[in-house]
Amino acid sequence: MKELSVNGNNTARSVLSLLSEARLCFATAESCTGGLIGQMITALPGSSEIYAGGVISYSNDVKMKVLSVRKETLERFGAVSEETAGEMSEGVSKLTDADIAVSVTGIAGPTGAVPGKPVGTVCFGLTTKKDTKTYRKQFGENKTRDEIRALAADFALSLVLEAGKELS
Amino acid sequence: MKELSVNGNNTARSVLSLLSEARLCFATAESCTGGLIGQMITALPGSSEIYAGGVISYSNDVKMKVLSVRKETLERFGAVSEETAGEMSEGVSKLTDADIAVSVTGIAGPTGAVPGKPVGTVCFGLTTKKDTKTYRKQFGENKTRDEIRALAADFALSLVLEAGKELS
Asked: Chain B closest CA to A89's CA: distance in Å?
């Protein structure tokens, strides 16, 4: 898994290539991946053309204050929910005006599991000028923190790739 | 250099240990490291206690709009300057209310060098409730992008560590 998280992976390279060609740019709102997606894409020279940046909203405070996630959403659905993920991607979309905004919030472990949300549960938001979609994945309770984060980052980048294909 | 950027390094572990003990938390504003510092610290379980999150201000737009870096500062001194770095750490300090805020803006290469600022030039800002300090380092023109980013992330974490020692 190490290769995934160091020098960008194939998905990151595909995102760079497709968005450069289509002249689109994207932004990130990362909770459990904590900057991993940003680091994977910016490891690639040329990424400044297609990556605006984003917010690492590790605390709920930053989710609310910087990304405008509503307190009621966090209280009712929890930080790891499709509802929160959707507000995160909408928040960073507004902040950066990027064509595509992706968000990740999940339980990377080893602790943090709650009833109905075991370790490995990760939610995603994807906002374009058209709409916001949300996703929920279970990457496996027995995976390590590093593995779950790498899989989550890769899935988020694959969402950006799909959105880029649709928009271009 | 790979070990540095994957699972956090010794500096990241020292930051986690010291800030946990002292009940302090920090935030990041990353340009050329693009999320690497956030990813290094959040790779460590328990980091949510001491890391609020931050902003990946890869574009100048995000530097201005999210971190309140002044347009005049960017025009007069450039994105890679101690002046911009200081406004970045002050900006993320205000956004997150963290005890310690650190910023990084530099030229990781292979392109992007300008007269007087070769590849490897990286500026840092460090804001605490007390004051803001800025730093400029030259990590070496012949280093790779990965190496420069890893060295910059490590130096930023060492600044957080020093500030944490002072505050605790």
From this structure: 14
Which of B42, B60, B67 to probe by mutation at the A interface, max A CB count within 10 Å?
A: B42
Tell whether omega for the bond before B118 is within 30 degrees of 0, i.e. cis: no
The ranges of chain B with pLDDT < 50 are 1-7
- Residues A23 and A69 sit within 8 Å (Cβ to Cβ): no
Which residues between 70 and 99 in chain B have a beta carbon less than 8 angstroms from any beta carbon of chain A? 95-97
Per-residue model confidence as pLDDT tens digits over A10-39:
999 999 999 999 999 999 999 999 999 999
| CA quadruple B125, B91, B127, B101: dihedral sign | negative
Asked if the ipTM is above 0.90, the reply is yes
Q: For residue A2, which residues of chain B lie inside 8 Å, CB to CB?
A: 2, 6
Structure tokens at A137: 């994945």
Query: CA separation (Å) from B100 to A148, B133, B157, B160?
Result: 29, 11, 11, 7
Which residues in B lie closer than 8 A to residue A6 (C-beta atoms)?
Answer: 2, 5-6, 146
- Residue ranges per domain, chain A? 2-167
DSSP, collapsed to helix, strand or coil, labels residue B3 as: helix
B126 CB contacts (<8 Å, ≥6 apart)? Answer: B89, B100, B101, B102, B103, B132, B133, B134, B135, B159, B160, B163
Q: Judge if the upstream peptide bond of residue B45 is cis by omega within 30 degrees of 0.
A: no
Alpha-carbon distance A142 to nearest alpha carbon in chain B (angstroms): 16
From the options 3.30.1330.20, 3.40.30.120, 3.40.50.300, 3.90.950.20, give the CATH code of A2-167.
Answer: 3.90.950.20
pLDDT at A102 (0 to 100): 98
Nearest CB to A52 within list B38, B53, B58: B58
**Which helix H or strand E contains B27, and what residues bound it?**
strand B26-30
Structure tokens at A154: 């890769």
Query: Can you give the pTM of this predicted structure?
Result: 0.95
